[in-house]
Amino acid sequence: MAKAAGILIIGSEVLSGKVTDQNSPYLVRELRDLGVEVQRISTIPDDVRVIAHDVREYAGQFDLLFTTGGIGPTHDDVTIEAIAAAFDRRVVRDPALEKSLRRYYGSEITPAQLKMAEIPEGGCLAGEQDLGFPVLVFRNIFIFPGIPEAVQKKFARIREQFRDRPYILRRVFLRTDEGHIAEDLHRVLARYPALQLGSYPILHNPDHNVILTLESKDASYVEQALQYLLERLPAQTVVKVG
Amino acid sequence: MAKAAGILIIGSEVLSGKVTDQNSPYLVRELRDLGVEVQRISTIPDDVRVIAHDVREYAGQFDLLFTTGGIGPTHDDVTIEAIAAAFDRRVVRDPALEKSLRRYYGSEITPAQLKMAEIPEGGCLAGEQDLGFPVLVFRNIFIFPGIPEAVQKKFARIREQFRDRPYILRRVFLRTDEGHIAEDLHRVLARYPALQLGSYPILHNPDHNVILTLESKDASYVEQALQYLLERLPAQTVVKVG
Fold this sequence. Notes:
homodimer; alpha/beta; Molybdenum Cofactor Biosythetic Enzyme, Chain A; Alpha-Beta Plaits
């Protein structure tokens, strides 16, 4: 079984259409590449009750939960408070983060800036070797900021700890109508029920107009399913196999 | 109160990083522009039980629910079946859709193609004036396909029915650190608690590095909050007001 992950995008700016979420596309690609199965992405507002509810639910449901957004000095940054509330913990100041912030801002540091040293009690920092980009971790929850550049730098520091057996992906490019091959796909799934089989129509492509994706963590299972499928598909519909 | 909406992106291809969701960014911008408040976007797999659970929950929680994906002829197209299951309805064939499909595919239409005429019993078509782009509607659920081009064409036909009182948005562009203005923002919210106030750090911009957004459906409320804010912000930090 692949490790299952959830992603929680915390950001009223995404829900109001001011900012397009770049973090979930990045995280799903990275996690898939690492062999982790993302089972849900939710985008929710900067609302303590909503965040706390979802964090509790998803942290229980998935092996790993990644949050982005709501980490910062202003009123709309409530992710830490919400995660603490979700698990009935206090919010405390992390000494290493505080030291790092005081070094950066100097003696004129404001209470709002010091808020960025706060973590749910019992949380810790991952990737500590470089205090510039620590990731807050509480239980199985990895807490990222909202800025895509920062998410990517931080995730890169800790990504290897998530590496799992990789997915094997094969693609079949077709010129056909999905309605003509649906029955063949059903037959493949009846024989290979654990296969992750996708069928996607492609518009405006002179070469092919359907892509099938066959995936599993078991390479020989994918190859067998692929051969079984290719024996069934009308040969003239197959443009290429990749 | 604004109408509240949820968006459900049904697509294992998004969760596995093969396709980047373009539908939720489109729908949130359109809905915001129409004065509708999107409160949640969730991306979930092509799984009948998961879809049925979320559809039931979100259709109850929000005034409007928009789904994209899972409408088509293949095994992974299970949205209609899931919505029917969520409300304990049968799946039935819509006569208008069936006629339209038979006209398009001719006498060699396959059972898989006819599957695209299926709707949850009690559902109907919106935008019927043009059968090329009908939208399936079941209760408060608007059911769209996954292909962005089709979503946009279909949504355009029915968008006016969602029009509500518009949001008024003002922006303040600043050169400062968020930690220096957090206290001012708290004061604004203490006085104007219904204001939607966002604060966003901007990287690598020589002109400004924080954008504040002030929103409400009440124009004079936004203007008063803006004036109150501008009186509090250190004048030299304000680059422009838009």
